[in-house]
Amino acid sequence: MSQSEASMTVLDWLGVLRLEQYTEAFQTAGLTTLGECRSLTQDQLEQMGISLPGHQRRILANRGERRPVPEQRQTVPRRQKQEEGDRERERPVPKERTKFRSSAPLESSSSSLTSLTSDAPLPPVPPRSTPNCPPQRFTAALSPSPPPRTPVSPKLDRNAIQTPTVQNRSVSTSTSTQAPLHPPDPSPSQCRPQSLAFLPPALHSGSNGGRKNSPVSPIPSPTESQSAPPLPPKTGAAPKGPPPVPQRLPEVYSKGIISTAFITNVSSVGELKFEVVTSNRTFIFRAESEAERNDWVTVLQDCTGGRSRHSTMNPNSPLSSDFQGYLELRGLRSKLYTVVASDKVFLYKNMEDYRIGVGITSIDMNVGNVKVTDRRSFDLTTPYRIFSFMAESEQLKEQWVDAMHNAIGEALSNSEVADQIWMERSNSLCADCGAPKPEWAAINLCVVVCKRCAGQHRGLGPSISKVRSLKMDRKVWTEELIQVFLSLGNERVNSFWAANVPPSEALTPSSCSEERRRFITNKYRQGKYRKYHPLYGNQKELDNALCINVQSSDVLETLSLIFCGADVNCSTGMPSCPSPLSLAKAHSQLLQAELIKNNLNTVGLAMDVNPYSPPLCVSHNGFLYKTASMARAITERKAREEFSRRWCTLNDGTFSYYESDKNSNPNGALKASEIVCLAVDASDRHGYDHTFELYSESERLYLFGTDDADSHKEWVKSIAKSFIPASAEPLLRLGFERIGRLKCKDGLNLQTSKVGWFALVGSTLHAYLEDSRGEEIHLRKLNELSIQQDNEVLVLVERGRTLYIEGERKLDFSGWCGAIQIAAGSGGDTLSQQQLTETDIPIIVHSCIGYITQCGLTSEGIYRKSGVNSRVAALCERFRRDARSLCLREGEHQVDDVSTTLKRFFRELEEGLFTSEDAKTWLSTASIQDESMKISQYQMLLNRLPHVNKATLQALINHLYCVQRVSDLNQMNLHNLAIVFGPTLFQTDGKDYTAGRAIEDLIQHYIHIFEVRVRAHARASYIMLCISTTPGGHIICTVYLEEKKETATIPGSMTAAELTCEVLDRRNIPVKDKEYWSCWEVCNKEEMERPLHYQERVLPILHSFGTESHLLIKKYHSMEAMICYLVDVSKHGLMKFREERSILGLGRTTGSFNDRYFILTSNSLRMYKEVRSNRPEREWPVKNLKVYLGIKKRLRPPTCWGLTVVYESKKQEKPEKQQWYLCCDTQPEMREWFATFLSIQDGLQQTRVSRALPDTRHGNVSLIPLRGSENEMRNSVAAFSQDPLAVSQPTNHWD
């Protein structure tokens, strides 16, 4: 650096570099002259606030040091450069005019050489790190350039352009696909160039002008005089080259470039010459020396020979562009084909030249600026020239400006962050479309995306997607954020964002903008394809899980929680760490903190979108036989003649059928998304052995058949795979008879239907509902199966659960209803094929035993007398058709008919109760003399029985054990029962007593063989009402009096009030003032109890008891507090509600308590979702409700003041039972609700008992009537408040 240069002020120096905006920063740093800036480093520039990489490189390159300049044209000959002592710069001497070859000689005079007239020298090209360019020396800044040597006049060979000496060549830069060619560097590590730039030689007046034009017609030299226009060729010459550019180009821009991707051969030809061969042209160049020529040949041969090793570009492939088209360069009459690629703009004469890789020049955008000047015009300004372009339309102008702005950004970008992010393999592909090398990222969504997808992300807005560049937004990329992207990666993040993308909606790198917009909106705004978190929909649990997870290193789980609804600003409940962000920082989880920080203002995704589950991609083809499609169910058999042979294919989610395998146009097609049901017919249903039915959304039915079982199985499997989603994939592994999609309702929300996938296998219905695991419904164990609401709803009721299946389409729904009803009925003559109870006992056995226990236990000759054959046959048929719907009633059915029906069932049972293979072993065991050995052998055989057989045998023997206990009334002792049931159960002819002896042993040793516990045995008689009866036929049962066991004789007509009085009289317990005694039904298992109405008959209550229930006589200490509420006939308010829901097939309860608004009136109990709701969610008639005090503790009720409500339908044809739980906030509130229930139910009973109680001492105790009329109830309350013992009407005892 000369002394004058060192003393230049910073203001003047920055003005030359066009960076005047940094003058204040330099002055603040104490730098006033150029000499003081020689030691500047990149870190110092960062501290001064100069962060743009392009500006940093420009300043560092022009601070006075001599640095390699890859893009700077060499204007000094090599021999002059090597003279270190000569620092004097001279003005360059203009080159001679270009000489065009033609078929006729050109008549032109020699052009005078002119020199540059500009006083100020041109600023140098800022140095750039271009990997494909050999290094060059930077000429001294701000000093005149020495004149180059005048080039030797070259000789032109045929079909070639010769180049001046290499020392006089200047090389232009290019992208990775078109880089300029320079003299080779001696170092072996030099990168090969990918384009060859050249200037046309000067034309001398005495040169050979009779040769043909060059294949490339270059633009005139920028150094020629403006008064010397190019000489036009004479008539007959070859087509002339491109029109001259009116503005003068500095030598930083070449006159021609050859893409090395199109070079096919490079070889030395003649003296100092070498030829470059492309697929379309051959170029011959001449160097100044043999060494220079050899260097050029070596570099170019390495370029072409190493293409397969170093480049993915194939020969003759054009430059990969970001935007391309024709632009008019102002001053020219023709248009230039312009290509924007990466950080450069390339100019071509036309599209053909672009395709063959021969261009005019390239413009580096790191020193460029784009400015709109007119409606269709814009300027590309560089330090050396202003390119004024005009587009064909205003819309195209905007696109050109955007493309060039992107190129400028690319040129000024820093790839350090991008290289780090791409170290994670999955980040090297766009997370949305799969395009390679994505350079943008949504920092809050943690996805790396390409430029085209990033544009659609910006359309979502910063509240959803915060888009940042990997190369330009350097300050955003903290070390923590980079580590978040490295730890996650696009692959792991897409396991959440794109877990359920259907193949038809997936993006590809070639997808259009509209497809990208739709997909990205669905993916990130709607969350359509995301993997739903198990806690989705439960805000409190999501927030708690977020606070817990931010303390760990699982960033993906945090991302899932945030975008499934967790609040990043929720309260943690800890004063020291009030938010998840502070909690993450406190536990040194910096990556978690970075993710939360980027999502503090993110808007939550749509929460009401049903997730989409993509179908499995399958394909299959072959011949099938098809009938015409139908709009109604198939009721008749289809003969073989009604089927037509068709070639069928299943590809890309479409099932098509053709006239033959040679036709290209299908006769019809059915998309997998349109298939709603697939039914597999029985083998003898139609003319072909194996058939299946397809039901479509458009209410059409398609019937296909084949005689090949393997082909039929493969077709059914493939079609099911095509439309069953991945969430229900386990259904495909079942041997289903029918599979498809249905809408259903269950649980608390009966207003909104859920989509479920169902498969019917035998008598089991497998279901996969939304957001739930697979469930199994055992159809033969249902409490109710009915079709309601004009055949549009199929109701399945099991213990603690009711499922409503809706008929969205009549055609397939009618098929489902018929198939489910058949599967729920008795499917055969074996025990396992019968309709069963919850304890796996056939309903026919359970109903007959229950009826005989209640109505025929004391009937003389029970089981020995035969019923009427016609009535027995009718009963058997009704039980066989649907045992669940038949209810045996006293007076309507005869005891002997029912007992004969039970015996006939066991007699006709296939395989028998003891199974055919073990029956003989059972009979031989009866002959064992040793009682203990005999019992052990019976126990071993009992355990070998199937589960249903074992449960049925135990229920039957228990019943017979109870029958023989009252043999003094029914005359059926142990021996008589054995005679009747031995041949029946073992299905023998009864000629000997072997079978009877076995049954006698089972009844006699019932307690030991079946291992009945003492307590269970003591209650068994009480439950089945078969311990003993009085001579009058009254039942004797156990009643507890305040934890003391009592035995009471219960006539069939005894009421709760009479039982209470009898027990109190027997114990001589006086009733004191304001003491309220009553009879309670207590269920230990359910942890609930209720007082019986004074008129309720006790016998039916005993019939309905379970093993964990009993009667209890006790005082009701809270009665005094409830009296004031007993006059209310309505009530409303908020309570917490929970329904008894069970996971189908597993028997485990699920659900939680939710706030609901209830209105209780004299007719119904209505439940609303909230106070402002207009329509009730549920409604029940009060007359069918039983209200119990208490809730099971394992349900974890929110308060200890709860009620259990049981709903029992009174319809005998369609019995229904439901159970749910209510929680009140306070004890007085619970008492008020309970008293109101009792008051309303009391008003439903219009009659009063008139029978006087047997003991006036206790019988005239005034109890509040729970089922009397409203007036009677109020009168009773008023009388009771004056004198509790003055009322003589019989009433119930309250404790």
Automatic annotation (TrEMBL):
**Keyword Cytoplasm included in the entry's annotation:** yes
Read off the lineage from the record: Eukaryota, Metazoa, Chordata, Craniata, Vertebrata
Start and end of every PH domain?
274-305, 320-409, 617-724, 1128-1242
Biological process (GO) annotations held by this record are: signal transduction
User: Which portions of the chain have biased composition (kind: Basic and acidic residues)?
Assistant: 80-99
Q: List the residue ranges of the region (Disordered).
A: 61-248
* One Pfam family here: SAM_1
* GO molecular-function terms, A-Z: GTPase activator activity; phosphatidylinositol-3,4,5-trisphosphate binding; zinc ion binding
Provide the protein's localization. Answer: Cytoplasm
Q: Gene for this protein? A: arap1
Instruction: Return the Pro residues bias intervals.
Output: 121-134
Every copy of the SAM domain together lies at 5-60
Q: Compositional bias of type Polar residues: which residue ranges?
A: 160-179, 210-227
List the Gene3D superfamilies: Arf GTPase activating protein (1.10.220.150), Phosphatidylinositol 3-kinase Catalytic Subunit, Chain A, domain 1 (3.10.20.90), Pleckstrin-homology domain (PH domain)/Phosphotyrosine-binding domain (PTB) (2.30.29.30), Rho GTPase activation protein (1.10.555.10), Transcription Factor, Ets-1 (1.10.150.50)
Spell out the SMART domains in the cross-references.
ArfGap, PH, RhoGAP, SAM
Name the chain's protein: ArfGAP with RhoGAP domain, ankyrin repeat and PH domain 1
Give the residue range of the signal peptide: none
Protein species of origin: Sphaeramia orbicularis
Gene Ontology cellular component? cytoplasm
Please provide the record's keywords in A-Z order: Cytoplasm, GTPase activation, Metal-binding, Phosphoprotein, Repeat, Zinc, Zinc-finger
The protein's superkingdom reads Eukaryota
